[in-house]
Amino acid sequence: QQPVQSPQAVILREGEDAVINCSSSKALYSVHWYRQKHGEAPVFLMILLKGGEQKGHDKISASFNEKKQQSSLYLTASQLSYSGTYFCGTPRWSNYQLIWGAGTKLIIKP
Amino acid sequence: DAGVIQSPRHEVTEMGQEVTLRCKPISGHDYLFWYRQTMMRGLELLIYFNNNVPIDDSGMPEDRFSAKMPNASFSTLKIQPSEPRDSAVYFCASSIAGELFFGEGSRLTVL
């Protein structure tokens, strides 16, 4: 079952904050986040495991609530370089078989 | 260290022709994946290998698609015969400890 991402797209001014959500109808034990810039390959951001932990990557952090079967990605004081499409991936049978959300397109304007 | 290397970067071919996409994973990575990305279907896992052995090919669309990994440093994805609906960006990725490292992709256009 494909995870559901929201919103589908968001437009921000540089310096503003954004939250991207990823939810699943099945129990999760991990959530994987990637960013893909236009015309480029997806790039790894972080993996979150069971335990409700938060992780950080520069000014990008994420939380994982396995009871609610969802994860949220937080982008603080967004920079132009944050523009791109953000994908969450959830395991199908293992961490190596990811099912990907449809993506959230983030546009940062100066 | 060089990343995942894919070739060709762009391929334009006619329906019915054979297409071979190539991938060199990052040295030391024990997992290799082939993904397909389209606007309509998003990012789809086609097949993945562990230590050169195919583990799951349930994502391969049909028998026209085949993939091999003859050694730890090389993999191919073959489409024969190709059809217009196969047009997509094909990504190869290698992995260690769950983190995927993607190649730059091969953009395939089948006319």
Largest sheet features of chain A: 6 strands, mixed
Pick out the low-confidence regions of chain A.
Answer: none
Instruction: Kindly state the percentage of residues in helix of chain B.
Output: under 10%
Largest interface: A-B, 20 and 20 residues
Strand and helix order of chain B: EEEEEEEEEEE
Rg from Cα of chain A: 13 Å
Mean pLDDT of chain B: 95
Question: Could you characterize the architecture of this molecule?
Answer:
The complex is a heterodimer of chains A (110) and B (111). With 110 residues, chain A is mostly beta strands. Chain A is 0% helix and 56% strand. Chain A contains no helices and 11 strands. In chain A, strands 2, 4, 5, 9, 10 and 11 form a 6-stranded mixed sheet that branches. In chain A, strands 1-3-8-7-6 form a 5-stranded antiparallel sheet, with no helix packed on it. In chain A, a hairpin with a 6-residue loop joins strand 9 (84-91) and strand 10 (98-100). Chain A is globular, with a radius of gyration of 13 Å. The termini of chain A are far apart. In chain A, 34% of the residues are buried. The model of chain A has no long low-confidence stretch (mean pLDDT 90). Chain B is 0% helix and 59% strand. In chain B, the strands form 2 sheets. In chain B, strands 2, 4, 5, 6, 9, 10 and 11 form a 7-stranded mixed sheet that branches. In chain B, strands 1-3-8-7 form a 4-stranded antiparallel sheet, with no helix packed on it. Chain B has strands at residues 5-7, 10-13, 19-24, 31-38, 42-50, 53-56, 65-71, 74-79, 88-96, 99-102, 106-110. Chain B starts with a strand and ends with a strand. With 111 residues, chain B is mostly beta strands. Chain B is built from no helices and 11 strands. Chain B is globular, with a radius of gyration of 13 Å. The A-B interface holds A 30, 32, 34, 40-44, 47, 87, 93, 95-103 and B 31, 33, 42-45, 48, 50, 55-56, 91, 95, 98-105.
